[in-house]
């Protein structure tokens, strides 16, 4: 494997000398997106005061809630108790993971006898939008961000601040007009709204369906609109038009990390007119022939026993700062984590918003990441994909598999490879990642593009 400019930081992965053989994998059908039986008056209150005010000069931030994709994969209700974390023995945790893994594998084979889960779940999103006085023609870029397991929508905010403040951003034609940062249903503020409704099985396809549900049914038609905290569903006619033709008034770029990056693959294939380009950071899309994955589910067992509740906020912060898992995180990202990932309970304790059980259930995902790798072949060639990799990461299969993945899409592919960084790349190098995104946007959307939108 050769690297271009190997003495520079970051470097670029060259095309592979040969394409590794892989077995064709028949992807599973995706559940249709039905209109959930809920009206605006039924929407829940946000679990905390919604964001408001200035995000960076020229941009404002607000928080919104709307129904997640409905229905969802089969799942049995499970209300995780507060005490089921570090006090759970390794043996008990391993036994529970063994049971959950068997259930998940049955679901992945399409043999799950349970009906689809028809609980109404909720998505919470932050919107960052250019102020009216600075919006000009209103035809800039719309960015949509998805996070990975164990983080939340606010993880992206330090990166977004750098991106919006970057002088380099003036070099590409369409400005960033609007940004949406989405919580997965099991993370952040959404996890608090959904905790009593979530079950023992998670399918990554539902994360993709949550994204599709937002873009097709709840994303306002134009970024210049003033909108309420609760997003209303658009008409069936509008949904149909978006499915077939995309948006006339938006140029949408998807940005995701890990399973969040993987989740962009399905809509890019099913609705090829929606996304103008994708930026995939440490995407958990790997071929089925990769055998490195944790066969014994040790990661899931460790996650299940993760400490998640403390007597005070100070104790929570002290524990997190001392945990080796967080040692490589950038201080600003850690600050966002302290502020947005933990919350006070009714009895005065402090806890993570997402229960370790819910993260462990997500870690059980296997088939979907192989399906997404297969589907890279089906993304239309004129949708540019930009890959950002960590050289120390094994989640993407290491450098050989990262290279195969980068050049699997039959169209335009670009990449950067950061040799000293692990899988949690957004948490480790927000400055460099903001530069990566900015440079890609500058190349992909040159100054003369605005006149053509």
UniProtKB/TrEMBL annotation:
Domain AB hydrolase-1 intervals: 143-435
UniProt entry keywords in alphabetical sequence: Hydrolase
Hydrolase in keyword set: yes
UniProt keyword annotation of Hydrolase present: yes
Molecular function GO terms recorded: hydrolase activity
A Pfam family recorded for this sequence: Abhydrolase_6
Protein name: Alpha/Beta hydrolase protein
Annotated source species: Collybia nuda
